[in-house]
Batch of 3 targets.
Target 1
Amino acid sequence: MADLDTFRRETRAWLEANCPPEMRRPMTSDEDTFWGGRNAKFSSEPQRVWFERMRDKGWTVPHWPREYGGGGLDGEEAKIVRQEMAAIGARAPITSFGISMLGPALLKYGTDAQKREHLPKITAGLIRWCQGYSEPNAGSDLASLQTRAESDGDDYIINGQKIWTSYANYADWIFCLVRTDPTAKKHDGISFILFDMTSEGVSTKPILLISGRSPFCETFFDNVRVPKANVLGTVNRGWDVAKYLLQHERAMISGMGERGGSRPLGQVAAGSVGSDAQGKLDDALLRAEIANFDVDEAALAAAAERMVDLAKAGQGHPAFSSAMKYYGTELNKRRHELLMSSGGIDALEWESERSHEGARPRAWLRTKANSIEGGTSEVMLGIVAKRILDLPGA
């Protein structure tokens, strides 16, 4: 415990000395997020400084091994880093599907060569990844996917289509599910493969959403040649890798239910509604709704810590991430409903030079997809009923 106390003091001092003041403020736009990648650009000098200092420290992914660019910290130390960053409002230095989804799968299923090739580039923000899972006829029933990979010597030739591929038009590489044995049962005969998005035959088409923005894409593969050495895990056993990765994806998505670096709802609402003589939000009903939300937000944060602690102790349940995904996404939808309610008529402003105002209805509309992407809320509840509650007939 004394060693952890020392580590906490040293971590707090390092963060205070190295996190620029600008990186301790709530994010106001998508440009405040650094995704990394071959074509990445920093939105500001403080963003560059913060990322590079964390990268050099190994704290873009503190708990990964040092040989892959991580910090080599144990679970308790990594938890302290998260807590101390939260204490000063420090932003994550990078947002990355490579960190939150692919990385854990690589650590578990990757060959030594695959780990050494990809993990250091992920921690250093050199490659931006996207996920090739869903297809037009394979959404919730993902195992019915039809994108095919046919053997040709040392390569596979891939043909098919993916949909809802988040940020595929900006990604450098894709981790993708393909069918390598069309004669096998649908959960068998699937392989998990990695390849460069600049490969000949890969194309993307953005999907415009009701919010007027386009995080999703259709992704097409037309005779794409990929080395067989890029298969992660065992050929025809990709479903094992896919399920493991989904646990991490759903845990990542659940995090949107936590406030992170944004301002508390009460402060946001006070800016529009005002406060009474006692300094309370001048709308009793809205004040009660926000108070209820704050309690549920705190409960989600506590559950997230519990999930990490259980996993560290080897007691984690593989379906717990589904419960977290459901709760976190539904909570985020509630947050944006309250933001709209607290903004009054100003919150309906769509086109505005004041981007923080014009962004509010767009963000609210975008959250409608939260309970669909990464597995619908109905599917998540079904998994909880079957795998955790063991309900009859589930």
Note: Residues 284-312 form the longest helix (29 residues).
Target 2
Amino acid sequence: MDDELHERVREVIASVPAGSVATYGDIASVSGAPSPRLVGRILGEDGHDLPWHRILRADGTPAPHLLDEQLQRLREEGVVPDGQRVDLRKYRWRRDTDDDAGPGALF
């Protein structure tokens, strides 16, 4: 993986605002990463200073080893999970299409 892609993934993750979530696949799509797994790898190795807790699996759940801390951090930001799952229809990050300050819109 090149440094440019690595930094682009970090930039997209950093742009997910409080009160919103995105999936690993969303971040891969916006950043041009070849897979959601690469996004997870970057977060695992170099995500300590990013809002990592806002990134979820495709079904709206955190990774099992992060479950309690991740859901607590999301609750503190106003994201109310339904059990151990976040309703992606309600909380999924949507970037304004007019916003050209960063990577493109998710939708």
Note: The chain has a mean pLDDT of 90.
Target 3
Amino acid sequence: MTVTETETTTASGLRAKAQAHLGQHFTRRDAWQSDELPVFVRSEGCHLYDERGRRFLDGLAGLFCVNMGHSRSDIVAAAARQMETMAYSTNWGAAHPPSVEAASLIAGLAPGDLDVTWFVNSGSEAVETAIKFARQYHRSQGQPGRTKIISRHMAYHGVTLGALSVTGLPKIREPFMPLLEGVRHVPNTLGVTGDQGPAAELECVRAIERAIVEEGPETVAAVFAEPVQNGRGALVPPDGYWRALREICDRHGVLLVADEVICSFGRLGHWFGSGAFGAVPDMITFAKGATSGYAPLGGMIAREPLVRALYDSPLGGTFTHGATWGGHPVSTAVAVANITAMRDEHVLDNVRTLGPELRAGLEEIKNRHRVVKDVRGTGFFYAVEFAADRDSGAELTEEQSARVLREVLPAAFRKTGVVLRPDDRGATMLMISPPLVADREVLDELLSGVAVMVDDVARSVHG
């Protein structure tokens, strides 16, 4: 596509306005003010198009969310129909068809008796909802001292104050200290494999029970964990891990919360990641893939017996929580269209079929380059971790890491036309999360781009 002088001028004007007025999330000022700041104006399928007309593969599915791909007319039409029918109504003492249908669909897909959904607007709000429900549930059962939360080192659970307190990433917590009291972080599953003994005997499991006992079970409200932990790079749990968590929580009267903001709605090849690992949690938080990013929506799903116990208690009576946009008619109509399309088009089968091929391609790249320390993940969710030399165990220096994250990988994204996420949460990593509708051709394009990126990292480190 030929770029005209007018188009170039328009692109420059958009970028200048963004740099003057549009605050950038989790973005360094030098990247915000760079002449290379991307301005995407159109999308289709698994691809984005910038203001110059160049096509990029969306290798991160937006931000782990555009599961069904971009610019689907059926999802857009569902939103338009709902706007024309009824643009807004609340779920405060009332209901409307799209939120009822969305909640019913989700109840039919969630594991066990997770039957009741409170809709909110984002993953952070979903985690806040779970924190509040856990506290109020215990209070309603005559245990107001159960307020503490156990979560894992390097886990990301959101940025609102309560969710940030549960988050285990020191770098993003530190600027906002002090946070919510009573949150304790325990080891995650990094480096733990299924051949290291029964799950109940693993240190990463025993540490959770030890923390509960040390804090006093009568003071602990909930354990929060992602089925596959995003922070520290797509940490897949060992076999039996989630069943062991369920047993520990049951033994001590603690609620188990699966934070599935990324892991639900097909990212791991299952509707819900916790179900894939053989456990029924007490609550599930979700967002992202529920609407494939076509509208903002999050939610918390709770087990029906817990909901009934809270509402039937004279100390409860109602869950004291809500949001103006929670269960918005347009967002929930989009969720219904999105989930229905995922089901009818067997998208989860695509992930289960091609996920192993994606992993095999990443492992092949790893085997060619000693700068790749590890490849972790499952389904359509992977992390590539870098080192100076995998064979010798030499890690990247701070200077090398900064250059890879801030210069080498962003330049490689532009060169290859493949957009991924450089990640510095505990290591130097590349996060990979394509749309769930990606076929072999798209995955070949993705893997070709990753191969070039790894080549560039190797040259940067070794010259």
Note: The first strand starts at residue 40 and ends at 44.
